[in-house]
Specification:
Layout: E1 16-20, E2 26-31, H1 32-42, E3 49-52, E4 57-62, E5 79-81, E6 86-90, E7 99-102, H2 113-130, H3 134-145, H4 147-150, H5 157-170
Helix pairs in contact: 1-2, 3-5
Length: 172
């Protein structure tokens, strides 16, 4: 069983603070559609989950270093954030913007990495089957060519337009 880190890394109140991954945990950043499917598959086996509706992302926490070698489906945009990254962590009372979809507790912060990997792989495969539309294909093609958009470090204007077009098609 993995030791659960203390919750002293969580900001107070309604604030959001960047916290370094790799110290208490690594974070797994997942697109919302894949993340929601994986969350359903994990059920009560999930640990804490942050939802960032602005970025269309969910974040899980796993023991530091235990997911660094993951191989995920190409184009799924599932990224393990380790000791070179920071994660936007909301306070326990935050209800808008980045917020806790599944709040951490002293006994349930981390998700078992093998269970999460399996749930994400299954969810990514299912979602990929459901979204063969042209807008998504154009978005994936752009992400393959644009490092800033692929890593969400410096999204270009064209990438933003393609993402908006895909979101409009996906959620309409």
């Amino acid at each position: 069983m993995t030791k659960t880190p203390p919750l002293d890394w969580m900001p107070a109140g309604r604030t959001v603070s960047l916290r370094p991954a790799g110290k208490w945990w690594d974070a797994v950043r997942v697109p919302r559609d894949i993340g929601l499917e994986a969350l359903g598959r994990l059920g009560s086996g999930t640990g804490a989950v942050i939802e960032d509706p602005g970025g269309g992302l969910l974040y899980w926490f796993v023991p530091a270093g235990e997911a660094s070698a993951w191989q995920m489906t190409e184009g799924a945009r599932i990224i393990v954030l380790g000791d070179t990254a920071h994660v936007p962590v909301p306070g326990p009372q935050r209800t808008s913007g980045p917020h806790w979809r599944v709040p951490p507790t002293r006994s349930n912060t981390l998700t078992d990495p093998s269970r999460l990997h399996n749930a994400l792989a299954q969810a990514a495969a299912l979602v990929a089957e459901e979204r063969p539309d042209a807008a998504y294909k154009a978005l994936l093609s752009h992400y393959d060519e644009c490092p800033g958009c692929r890593n969400d470090t410096d999204q270009c204007a064209h990438g933003r337009q393609l993402r908006q077009a895909w979101v409009a098609v996906r959620w309409s």
